[in-house]
TrEMBL record:
Pfam families: Aldolase. This is 2-dehydro-3-deoxy-phosphogluconate aldolase. It is an enzyme of class 4 (lyase). Keywords: Carbohydrate metabolism, Lyase, Schiff base. Belongs to the KHG/KDPG aldolase family. Its EC number is 4.1.2.14. It catalyses: 2-dehydro-3-deoxy-6-phospho-D-gluconate = D-glyceraldehyde 3-phosphate + pyruvate. Signal peptide: none annotated.
Length: 215
């Protein structure tokens, strides 16, 4: 039986794995490795033709996982991924049309932002939890720190260019609840189906917190 729908994606773990699935057959063992390592929230990005089927497989066979869809950019993708079992949605950016579809989906969602004006516009619409993307290119920790003062009600999951060395700096910020990344899924390990290595890297990521110490 699947775990209850999360009230907030941001509070499930300090790191949300950003997963690109090329072969849907890898989805279940990959997800099981991440969950075993302590990372239950899994964002499957819609960058491949296997993504929707991967979400369906994880949702059906790995009940301990909270699988979501990433790189969502259209209402059609919202409908398709939620029907497949996605339990949260993440977009790289947002429009009013996309925001309306995500809001109506019935699952938690993180619209992407990279500017102060986008953050303010979402706050006006009652959205307080957001993805900050592309994090490093858009100003990194310095930018997010500057937002904390005037906009303390906004909470972020920064994603884009973040690794194990920089993640603790993001997690130290008062407006950052978790980070997104794919460093626990190195290409060679996935290609070799080395799920033991993925699990070990996931466990290291799950132990990250501000300052690099375990929570």
């Amino acid at each position: 039986m699947a775990s209850p729908l999360p009230a907030s994606v941001l509070d499930l773990a300090p790191v949300v794995p950003v997963v690109v699935v090329e072969d849907a057959g890898d989805a279940v063992p990959l997800a099981r490795a991440l969950v075993a390592g302590g990372l239950p929230a899994i964002e499957v990005t819609l960058r491949t033709s296997a993504a929707v089927e991967a979400i369906r497989e994880i949702a059906g066979q790995v009940p301990e996982a909270v699988v979501g869809a990433g790189t969502v950019i259209s209402p059609g993708q919202v409908a398709d991924t939620v029907a497949a079992g996605a339990r949260f949605l993440v977009s790289p950016g947002w429009t009013d049309v996309l925001l309306e579809a995500m809001s109506a989906s019935g699952v938690p969602f993180l619209p992407g932002v990279s500017t102060t004006s986008e953050v303010v516009a979402l706050l006006e619409r009652g959205v307080r939890e957001m993805k900050f993307f592309p994090a490093e290119a858009a100003g990194g920790t310095a930018y997010l720190k500057s937002l904390a003062g005037p906009l303390p009600q906004a909470r972020f999951c920064p994603t884009g260019g973040i690794g194990p060395a920089s993640a603790p700096d993001y997690l130290a910020l008062p407006n950052v609840a978790c980070v997104g990344g794919s460093w626990m899924l190195p290409r060679d390990a996935v290609a070799a189906r080395d799920w033991g290595r993925v699990e070990a890297l996931a466990r290291e990521a799950a132990a990250l917190s501000a300052g690099g110490t375990c929570r």
